[in-house]
Amino acid sequence: MQPGPDPCAGEPCDETLGACETGGDNGNAAADPNQVVTIVDPCLADQVRIMLNKPSGDLTAGELATLTYLERSGSSISSLSGLEYCVHLTYLALTSNEITDLSPLSGLTELTDLTLADNNIADLSPLAEMTWLEVLHVSDNRISDVSPLAGLSALVVLDLSRQSGGLADIAPLGTLTALTELSLSSNGISDIGALANLTELWKLILYWNDVTDVSPLQSLPKLNALWLDENPIDDFAPLAANSGIGEGDYIVLTCCPGLLDCDTPMPTRRSAATRTRWRPGARTSSMACATPAGRRRPCSVR
Q1: Contact 98, 79 (CB under 8 A)
Q2: Stated pTM of the model
């Protein structure tokens, strides 16, 4: 039996659509496997049905427990209610939706990879006890308080870029010593002192912030991919003192005032064409200046 047509494709969801589940009780995730479950959001329900190859009929707790992977983007999903029954979910990606409440995810003890970029999330507290999470992408949301993440000791990849109100305090991230990749671009960050503890970091994205002091990066021996472009940095000596940074590493310092002999035009913050992105194999010497056209040449540092 083939899944039915997608009622949510290209249009915001409407609860009057046939994919909207009815009946059941979203109670304890350890329910009887025959318990009928409500997936409140019709587009999320539709995606669950696609994954289960069940276009109609009641959904049960036992059926939801068979899901390990779920992904749906750009469908105006606003509620995660019902996903608490997906107790064996390991990967969840719901990019570009309208999600605000993460509480249905808090008991998913096998969920290790979570992507919720470009939603309306402001509160990360439902994730505070999810110490098993390894990958978390929550860029382009409304997060201002990152303290709920302080106990997520298993995190190795974290993306908090481009929060609508910025991130005034990233000190709680200093406890995440297993991190290897961290993205914090476009958040108005000035103090990166907490990053000095993250000695496993090899990739750090900090472009379009207000960083002036990069001395905390001196103690990161594994750092070999670093974006610091468009920050008011005038002293790069701490980077030169980092014994782990050397030839073959990728460091982007475009339009930082401490660069000499660099005539790259200052890009506007909204110009996507001026952004420099790392590509496997696209390595340069230890310090590089990137032009909007993508050409790179060495720049002197003070």
Answers
A1: no
A2: 0.80
